[in-house]
Specification:
There is one protein chain. By secondary structure, the protein is α+β, with helices and mostly antiparallel strands. The protein has one domain: Alpha-Beta Barrel (Multidrug-efflux Transporter 1 Regulator Bmrr, Chain A), CATH 3.20.80. Helix content is 22%, strand content 27%. Strands 1, 2, 3, 4, 5, 6, 7, 8, 9 and 10 form a 10-stranded antiparallel beta sheet that branches. The chain is globular and about 50 Å long. It starts with a helix and ends in an 11-residue tail after the last strand. The N terminus is likely disordered. The chain binds 2-acetamido-2-deoxy-beta-D-glucopyranose (3 copies). One 2-acetamido-2-deoxy-beta-D-glucopyranose binds next to loops.
């Protein structure tokens, strides 16, 4: 384990090496609306391994710290060395309470029902997400403290604006709560895909579940 950690000091790079080889599992969704600069997606029920990061520092630091713990988990640190497949994206969420970030990794369909329990020291939690609708804006480059706020603002403005056909794009329940989804390892300098996700409600007739 020690040696592996040293080799993987740039952990996100290891993630890249693995993700380059296999087809990567991602959470399932259907697009229920596509506007010029964002989508509304209905995500199916899903299970995530979640790493709360306290105290709250920066987005960059919290993502690194949380991802490190998830990385150890999927490399068998569940006390019996079972290895899990990498998935994408890695999520970093800021709850509006301001209580620190939560970094999450989607659990492969194989483990949706019963993921291997993580080593307690990693302080990870299994989370079940009910189906939910997300407004999603895509952006390129590296997601960092320097650019995410601009992307979040842009998504909020887009959702609040009426669609091209005059329809509402739903209601943002909690403007202080957002998620950044990152799909690529850190050694990719170009062709990077990131997203901002913000939960929306009020699109009941289009298939979104009532707000929870
Ligand atoms: C992020 O981590 C670096 C290195 O550990 C540290 O120097 C820096 O102060 C941290 N930044 C924040 C905002 O916590
Ligand atoms: C680790 O994961 C394996 C594979 O799912 C499981 O059989 C085992 O019980 C887990 N270890 C612990 C200590 O829970
Ligand atoms: C980054 O991830 C996205 C989504 O999985 C993929 O389409 C894209 O090709 C990746 N970019 C690189 C440079 O691998």
């Amino acid at each position: 384990m020690e040696k592996k950690l040293i080799m993987c000091l740039s952990i996100v790079m290891c993630w890249l090496v693995v993700t380059a080889v296999d087809a990567i599992e991602t959470p399932r969704y259907t697009v229920i609306r596509s506007e010029s600069d964002f989508q509304i997606r209905l995500y199916s029920e899903s299970t995530w391994m979640s790493a709360p990061v306290l105290p709250a520092t920066s987005f960059d630091n919290s993502t690194k710290t949380g991802f490190h713990r998830l990385y150890e988990y999927i490399h068998g640190d569940n006390l019996s060395s079972s290895k899990l497949a990498f998935t994408a994206p890695v999520l970093t969420s800021m709850p509006s309470s301001g209580d620190g970030y939560v970094v999450r990794m989607y659990l492969s369909a194989r483990f949706q029902g019963k993921p291997p329990p993580p080593n307690q020291e990693l302080k990870l939690q299994v989370e079940k997400w009910k189906p939910q609708c997300m407004a999603v804006r895509t952006f390129s480059g590296f997601a960092t403290d320097d650019n995410i706020n601009k992307e979040i603002e842009a998504l909020i403005n887009s959702v609040n604006r009426r669609g091209e056909d005059g329809r509402s794009s739903g209601t943002i329940q909690d403007k202080g709560s957002y998620t950044i989804a990152q799909y690529n390892g850190s050694s990719h300098n170009t062709g990077r895909v990131n997203e901002v996700w913000i939960q929306v409600s009020g699109l009941f007739s289009e298939g979104c579940p009532p707000s929870q």
